[in-house]
Amino acid sequence: MDLNLLSKHIKPESSKIVFLVMDGLGGLPRPQDGLTEVEAASTPHLDELAEESICGLQIPVGSGITPGSGPGHLGLFGYDPIRYQVGRGVLAANGIGFALQDDDIAARGNFCTIDDQGIITDRRAGRISTEKNQELCERLRSKVSHSGVELFFETVKEHRLLLVLRGKNLSSDLIDTDPQETGKKPFPAKATSSEATRTAEIVQMIADQIREILKDEHPANMVLFRGFSKKPCWPRMNECFGLKAAAIAGYPMYRGLSKIIGMDILETGASMEEEFSTLEKHWDEYDFFYLHVKKTDSYGEDGNFEEKMRIIEEVDRYLPRLRALNPDVIVVTGDHSTPSTLAFHSWHPVPVMIWSKICRKDSVSSFGERACISGGLGPRLPAVDLMPIALANAHRLDKFGA
Amino acid sequence: MDLNLLSKHIKPESSKIVFLVMDGLGGLPRPQDGLTEVEAASTPHLDELAEESICGLQIPVGSGITPGSGPGHLGLFGYDPIRYQVGRGVLAANGIGFALQDDDIAARGNFCTIDDQGIITDRRAGRISTEKNQELCERLRSKVSHSGVELFFETVKEHRLLLVLRGKNLSSDLIDTDPQETGKKPFPAKATSSEATRTAEIVQMIADQIREILKDEHPANMVLFRGFSKKPCWPRMNECFGLKAAAIAGYPMYRGLSKIIGMDILETGASMEEEFSTLEKHWDEYDFFYLHVKKTDSYGEDGNFEEKMRIIEEVDRYLPRLRALNPDVIVVTGDHSTPSTLAFHSWHPVPVMIWSKICRKDSVSSFGERACISGGLGPRLPAVDLMPIALANAHRLDKFGA
């Protein structure tokens, strides 16, 4: 059901919903015993919750599709990730809290290393320090210019930066200058629509200036851009779901995404202790909480089965603090799978459980990939269906038709 | 996800995918022991594969919809069979290996019987013999003509024939002249778009000539036409999936369909020995193989449970030869069900398994309708989802979004 139709059936309630999202939760069996990270983890509290929940596996974007973190999360929050696509540049801006104006063009940048021929030898300039990045952005800010366009160079983290162009008649219909591999030169700026011809010229002039300004730097002697994009104008969670929503996420990118769909971003550290404390502190102020655990994904991407498993066990130990708050609905899942054995995001369906007093629990008694196959949500629930089910469990959806 | 969007996420790989399709695979329980053909068959190799695979049941077209062979196969290959419909005329042409040119108009014809008033008394002219059909087509070929249009009358089988019009500015926007019931006169040829006005006039003149030429024949004294259509111009498998694909199918209709979506048609006999030898012979040349086993369907349509079961057992004995080739992904399924107890195609979901080293196997340990219900693909997977899942398992799909 699309957001517009759904929004017509929202009724006011004071119930509270919590989405506990372990990034990259789903996994694959390890060779020695055929267990995945979730299955191998000792998770008495998650298993107890599964026993009282309706369980299943969800598909974040589509069959066989490996989601990036943006689309993976949008689906969880009820936004069809194929319809609602965010550019990388906008994600970067949101991640650092840069207030984009409606007509701004944002691009994600990478400081990189090029050789004498201009060929990229390191797309991340040896992951320079954030301090070095700040110093270089400061220099670019003071030296790069183009008449009629206001430019912003903002440090994100390590080699990552944000470029924003503010001016009249700019378009984001541009290809990336980042070829996404070494051994090539940066691509020249190029428009993909006639409206963007002038913007492409401006971006090329900026790139040329950057190369000149950084020519004596090492290793960060050039910048690559990708994901030219404008701020999306989407329905917000309070409009479509009637929810006063808050995001508890230590990492910029997840905060940025949550902001786009209208969540309040709560001040928090990135540790689990800090995140759960933030949840407790603001419990009375909101009726929807998204709590994001990043490290399941980070360790998955490192190929570290043991540590990913331990993070899941740590979440398990914090679960009683969440339950003690007495939420009406708890959804536990991930935004995609990141099997340690692949060390990368994957398309595999993600375990999910929805707990409420009226969820109609199934016979699943442990939380894991194989156990959830036989759950009441089925083995292939589209992620966008989670939000309406959560709302229903929270008594927040009215009858459809007479 | 639609083919266009999917095609944007294809990445080049050298992995190999095999679709082993047993036509009409799904069945219904026989009375004596409640087992279906697949369940009753002794299939140690298929069961072993199931144990290492993710299993389920797939729906070729839609819930309750009994697929013809064309739509049943299109779904398997990732083409939504409701969106991608082939005209009956084109299917008839493909079925007999008639090489349609891009602008040809093809129609499926029936020799029929009409009475003195021109009213249809038998839509199939008593199912005349194929020899009689050939004699009549020969006569139509030599006597029917229209200036500026080349005409082809080709025997299909029994009362069935193919009409092809070749010329400039022809359109297939025509209603059927076949009213699909007796007691009515053939419908006059009629255009459904202004572009087809002239083509409708030509078809009507052809119909008038046929009536005159066959007036002393009995029972085949007229021809009815339906399914006016042009060769479809669909995305080809190399465009949308980046696959160099080959079809191994002994029967013309399956070769024709495979050709439409861009597969190379490998020279092969129709026996299983010949088909598997063809697979081995061409193994290094392609990265996608479709191997079609026809007789499961033929025996199903004959109501011959035992023989359909034996064909499945024969496939089982050939499976080790397929596995010895070391494919990256194996998909085993059918294009629809043909239960011997019904002796006809049916809507019942079709057992399916997808094997790869990273498929995330479930707990299903035998290949059959009931066992597959509890598989990780679920009991009602849309067939169009199989191709993206197979591509993902073959590492051929890139991440969606950042």
Question: Briefly, what is this?
Answer:
Two copies of one chain form a homodimer. In chain A, the strands form two sheets. In chain A, strands 10-9-11-1-12-13-2-14 form an eight-stranded mixed beta sheet, sandwiched between helices. In chain A, strands 4, 5, 6, 7 and 8 form a five-stranded antiparallel beta sheet that branches. Helix content of chain A is 32%, strand content 20%.
Describe the model.
Chain A has 2 domains: 245 residues, Alkaline Phosphatase, subunit A; 139 residues, Alpha-Beta Plaits. The first copy, chain A, has an 8-stranded mixed β-sheet, sandwiched between helices. In chain A, a hairpin with a 5-residue loop joins strand 4 and strand 5. With 402 residues, chain A is α/β, with parallel strands linked by helices. The longest helix of chain A has 20 residues. In chain A, 32% of the residues lie in helices and 20% in strands. Chain A contains 14 helices and 14 strands. At the A-B interface, strand 3, helix 4, helix 13 and strand 14 of A face helix 14 and strand 14 of B. Strand 3 of chain A pairs parallel with strand 14 of chain B, so a sheet runs across the interface.
